[in-house]
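Dataset card, provenance and construction

Sequences and ligand SMILES were collected as paired inputs. For each pair, a complete structure of the chain with the small molecule in place was predicted and serialized as structure tokens. The example below shows a pair involving adenosine-5'-triphosphate. Curators did not alter the output after generation; any descriptive sentences attached to a record were derived from the structure itself.
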Amino acid sequence: MKTTNPFPTSEYISPEFFCDRETELKQMIESIDNQRNITIISRRRLGKTALIKHCFHHLKKRKDISLHYFDIYATRNLNEFVNILSTALIGYFESKPEKILSQLIKMLGQFRPKLTFDELSGAPSVELSLQTQAETEQSLAAIFSYLAKQKQRVIIAIDEFQQITNYPEKNVEALLRTHIQANNNVNLIYSGSNRRMLISLFDDYARPFYQSTGFLFLEKIDPAQYKSFISKHFKNARRKISSDALSFILDWAQGHTYFVQEICNRVYSAGDTAIDIKDVKQVTLQILEERTPLYQVYQNMLTASQYALLKAIAFETNIDKPNSSVFLTKYKLGAASSVIRSLEALETKDLIFYENNIYSLTDIFLMRWLQRQ
Ligand SMILES: Nc1ncnc2c1ncn2[C@@H]1O[C@H](COP(=O)(O)OP(=O)(O)OP(=O)(O)O)[C@@H](O)[C@H]1O
Ligand SMILES: [Mg+2]
């Protein structure tokens, strides 16, 4: 029989394959139980989405709440937001297709909803025919008034929430805020990685969402916890990973969830019964080799000074004063003013990010790859 690799690199599976986050889970459940909204913020791929799924997994047996998750990363306007929101909502309350349809008609009948089912997964999806902005706004109002009437309290998780700031319609924030605030049957979990954008959305008193949520700034998993989690899963498969190998993984991937998971997934799939540091190093080399064609593209995609700066930050692992003369001289980066421009460009391209007063690369594998060039 084929066993599941215990180190998933994309989807959340179950608590068994999820390391720690006990405190964060408690904080989320406490927010939900006390009718507070909460916003999860962290750098990319640290585990925001998995944490939401983990929390929902713990709450799924609760009869007093209904749980809905949707990701708005791919949406470009309010219209698409409404479609994806209705898709996330329907199908929860009813599971039979004919009942889903009657529920949909009750909720959004006037907007001529089209219900389709995914060929492979069978998952329902809703498309409303919304002609004007006024209709879009009315459909949103209809959804929230439907939710207000539910017996269960409604918890909606909106992943990549900062995306709403890119919608072309002018009053999106105010509109959403009005419905959310007016509806005391609905609580929200917001999540995203664009720290600056999310903080300004919720912490600028001129904006509608000002102070409408608590925060959960997700940090790296405690290394000791992560090591024992990894070790346990090898042991369960009657295999052993050495303590040196574990330390190497945590250090090389900087304890960053996705990168640790990716390495462990591959070490696991290699199948050795006794894993030592050299086996792990072998895997990390394979990963870098495999990604070389992707990473080589950056040299052409970026200007010479942006690429030089990216490489310099990679060499330093992280940097607090990128315009200091020591740093500029060491890597021959030229004038401070041009470095500032390059920093902005690299940040916009999501190649680097700024957190806790330091700049570092978003992709740890890219950082390791550049360090070897
Ligand atoms: N606590 C954990 N234990 C084990 N694996 C985890 C944990 N948290 C996240 N993961 C895994 O790490 C990977 C990245 O997590 P996830 O996609 O949740 O991050 P994210 O912060 O939502 O990323 P993005 O910013 O790209 O949306 C996934 O494969 C996920 O299953
Ligand atoms: Mg995510």
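Derived descriptions for this record:
The chain has three domains: 21-217, 221-291, 302-373.
Residues 311 and 373 are 9 Å apart (CA to CA).
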